[in-house]
Amino acid sequence: MKKIRVSNKDARFAVNGQREFKGSHTFAEIDESGAYKVYSYGYHFPIYAFVNGKWYANKDKYSVSTSKHQSQLRPEGNLILVSTQEIKDLKNKKVKHLDQDAKPEKPAEPVKVKCDGCDEEVSEDDLQYCEWSGKRICNGCAEVDRERPSVLVKYEDGAKEVVKFGEYDAWTEDGDSAPDWFKDVYEARTYVRSDAWRGHYETKFKGLETIVDGWVTGYPDDSQKPEKKAIEFHEYLNKGGKIPVTLYWLFEPTSNVFSTASEILCRTEDKEELIAWLNSNGFTVEDLQSAFN
To answer: Mapping DSSP to helix (H, G, I), strand (E, B) and coil, where does residue 38 land?
Structure first.
C-alpha cells in the first residue's frame, strides 16, 4: 500500500483507518506480522499500535515535540498503555505450519550506521531522518537538537508564525515542516564558544538586517523601564498589533539558562520604514536596544 502524505494536525483520520502515511517527523507502517504502528521521528519510538483488534499507546515520554505528536495522532477508542519496548514487541497473531525438525532461524544482526551528527555507529533502527537537513542522526543528537532550539517568530499583518530550529531540524508549533518563508531567509546556525564551558548560538539570515540585538536576562520590574518597554512591544505584537512591514524576532539559547539571546530583524528594504514607525509609536530603537544590553 502506498503511503499518503498528510500534515500532523490532519493525520488522525489516517491513524483511525490504519492507513500507512508520512507526516512531518511522523509516519505509520504495517509490519511483517500485519501490526499497524505509528512512529514519532523514527522506529526507536512507536507511539501507537493497532494489534489483534486492539489499540495500544506508548506510556513513555521522550520530548516535547513527541508529546505533541502523541496528542495530534491519538486514535479514537480505548487505549492499552504499554512501554516503548512492549509496543515494539507487539505482533499480530499468525498461524504458521512449521517443520517440527526445522531449526529456528538465527535473528539477523542489527545493521550499524554512522550518525551524521556525532559520527557514532548505532543501529539503523535508532536513527532519525531530519527532513530539514537531509541528515540521519542518533537519538542523543536529536534530543539535544530539540530540547534547546532557536526560535524565529514572524509578525506580519497582525498575525504571527513560529519556527523552532536546531542544527539538523526545523519545525512549526504544530510539529510540521518549516514553511517556505523560513527556507528563504535561513542561512546557517552555529555555536560560538566564549570559553571551554560557555557559549551561545548565532544564526545568519539572508536578506534580513538587525534592528536591535543583545541579551535578555531575568524579568522586568519597576526599576527596569527599558526591559518593560521591550516586553510591552512583544505583547503588542502577540496580541495582533499591526506594523507596516514584516518583522522577525529571534530567540536563541545560551549556556546561561537564565539568559536568552534576542534579536529583532526585518528585510533590508524595510529597515528605514520600521525604524521610523518604532520611533513614532513609543518603541524607540534606543529603548529596545537598552533592553537587550
So the answer is: strand
The span from the CA of 47 to the CA of 40, in Å, is 7
Contact 35, 45 (CB under 8 A): no
d(CA 287, CA 160): 23
Whole-angstrom Cα distance, residue 283 to residue 279? 6
Please classify residue 155 by burial: count the beta carbons closer than 10 Å to its beta carbon, then call 0-12 exposed, 13-18 middle and 19+ buried: buried
Look at the block and give the residue holding cell 539477523. Answer: 108
Alpha helices (H) in 129-191, listed in sequence order = 139-147, 180-185
Cell of 249: 524576532
- Per the CB < 8 A criterion, the answer to whether 145 and 237 are in contact is no
Distance CA 50, CA 182 (A): 36
Question: What tens-digit pLDDT sequence spans the chain (293 residues)?
Answer: 568 888 888 889 999 999 999 888 899 999 988 999 999 988 899 999 999 999 999 999 887 788 889 989 999 989 999 999 999 999 987 544 444 454 555 555 667 888 998 888 888 777 777 878 888 888 888 888 888 899 999 999 999 999 999 989 898 887 788 899 999 999 999 888 887 788 888 999 999 999 999 887 654 444 444 578 888 999 999 999 999 999 999 999 888 767 788 999 999 999 999 999 999 999 999 989 988 87
State the CB neighbour count (10 A cutoff) for residue 93.
Answer: 9
C-alpha 127/C-alpha 123 separation (Å) is: 7
What is the rounded CA–CA span in Å between residue 125 and residue 229?
Answer: 50
Q: Could you give the residue ranges of the DSSP H alpha helices within the chain?
A: 12-16, 64-72, 84-89, 139-147, 180-185, 225-238, 271-280, 285-291
